Amino acid sequence: MFHVVRYQPLRLIIQNSLSHVCLKLMLSRPAAFAQIWKSWFSNHSLVGNKNIILMGPPGAGKTTIGRIVSQKLGCPVIDIDDDVLEKTWNMSVSEKLQDVGNEQFLEEEGRALLKFSASGSVISLTGSNPMHAAGMQHMKKNGIVVYLDVPTTVIMSRLKSMKVDRIVGQSPGISLKDILQFRKQFYKRWYDIRVLYGGDAAPEVVAEKVLDAVKRYRNSELETFISTRSSRSGRSMEKDSHKYFSDVVTEGLAPDGGLFVPERGLPKFTAGEWQSLIEATYIERAQVILERCIHPADIPASKLSEIIGIAYGENFTCSKIAPVRHLAGNQFLLELFHGPTASFKDFALQMVPHIFAYCIPRSCNYLVLVATSGDTGSAVLDGFSRLHDTDKQRIAVMNFFPEDGVSPIQKSQMIGCQKENAWSVGVKSDFDFCQTAIKQIFTNSDYTGFLTVEYGTALAAANSINWSRLLPQIVYHASAYLDLVHQGIIPFGSPVDVCIPTGNFGNILAALYAKMMGIPIRKCICASNENNVLTDFIRTGVYDLRGRKLIPTFSPAVDILKSSNLERYLHLITNEDGQLVTQLYNQLENQGHFQLRKDLLEKLQQDLVAGWCSEEDCLAAIHSVYSTTGYILDTHTAVAKVVADRLQDRTCPIIISSTAHYSKFAPAILRALRIAEINQNPLSQLHLLSSYSPLPPVHWGLLETLKKKGNDDHQVCAADMSMLMSRIETLIQSHFM
Fold this sequence. Notes:
By secondary structure, this protein is of the alpha/beta class. It has three domains: 44-218, Rossmann fold (3-Layer(aba) Sandwich), CATH 3.40.50.300; 271-339 and 468-663, Rossmann fold, CATH 3.40.50; 357-464 and 714-736, Rossmann fold (3-Layer(aba) Sandwich), CATH 3.40.50.1100. The protein is built from 35 helices and 22 strands. The relative contact order is 0.09.
């Protein structure tokens, strides 16, 4: 058996690690030498008894990078090709391949891995090692597998320069590109950490990225979350009560009433890392971005891949998931309505239920509460109803919506999406009441404690107050930019503006986060309807709810006066001043208004501009766009289109978020298209729209939902907190007891 032991004599360590210059430094400047030694020891302790296993396609640089990493760590380096296979076979790898053929080669290569053992080493695998399951399982037992992820186009260019035109597993008639793509499934199966880089990254830079990635993997303590209302002094006193990603997914709202945010902020991608994703699919982009936002101690890469595959696999009608369509001039539409319930909410809520089911403890049942202004409800109900049967038994969802504040089709959707673990309750009030009620329930420790003790059931949130809801939204804003680059509309690095119909501030916050992570977004344009409290705030710095009443509009998803996720943005621009955020929101709660300092308003206006759209202008925009292009905007997208027309300066492309499918708002669309006879039956309305052969076609998922019987069967409740809590308790008794 081939075996490498990590322990080396101190003499050899010193010989390998300390140059003559370092020895002189040790004698002449002991403090400086101590710092160097501390750095070396920090790197060396990364390995311990574990191996760092470099995996990737041929041409990824595994051998070169492995040598550099081993030098930095002061530990052995093993190249499987040179140090194991050729010594085992007494012939070159190419000769062996020619001698036995593809299938036998892979088997014998795997058997060699099974006989191999090492510890505390850096190991460079062959490009084909991951194709042998037993061999990789053996390697992973004592190793951290690092996937060197290089774009296929870069690998092909490198192999061409190396005069390599055939690799292991490549049969006649199969191109080099095809076999490289085929191998990716095996790399994705085995890795613990991904290191992403393009063709121009120097090996030394990649080696540092490997070390940084391993450090992150081995230290989850660095990725903690804080409340937007926590003070710095309070944080230092509460180090023993760190919150991690799995905690904030489960808890939703912070105990002090604030929202969870990552203590060290979001990860930054280099320009080269973003550029390496230009050729990637949406699912591949999602995997890379979310891996950097979710520590593998919370969700391992393999499980995250499984979740993303389930979320965006067969549930979306468009293979591109979130396609970018040219509208006119410099305007592009980001179509976010191809999911099962026809709105942008599906991007998070096809994924979040599976994340939630993975993160929560098995010892407790969970009831997920959600308030909706229209689209969230059906998306939550659909997402949680797709859980595995065993998870449905311990996770249920209850959706509160304004009984008279959503479109008829939205209501039919929410009722039609009810399943054995998912229910809708209409509330005789508006969305702000529903959202505030849920926040009050979560902060009522007596009530939540009673539910836990009496019924073994904890409450959780699925609104965008839950941090996990925001992460998938970052992905589609980043992906839209990369699509424009891929289509040749702009070179990478050129700026774009984004215009987003905004009510609860979550979608536009995700765009701001994408900007922070390195996507070149210049301005985020906040588009309001006649409930324009956000527009006034962005223009003046005054958030004033005094005397305001919610106005029902054609765009109900943004009929919101209290924007929950704005709190996360204020925490950001105040440099994480939780005391100031607490002060502002206490004033809003008690007095109905607050005002930003001048310096904070200036900071805000560097990121955001805002405008609003009347009902008449919304309908006119739908008619105008259809008349000139044949494309039908939904009412929310029309609001954004109107505001974009007014505020863009036309010096760069503008991406308008098309947040819902027009089918959900058929009466308003038919009115905008000036169709006189409108049947009140929602299904008839969709059939009428379909007869116009519109672009895009009527949404299939809505048609299927509306065909279901029993679409009037739901509970209705008065706007009373005690009644809402009673409904919750009744549901818990019926489902979990």
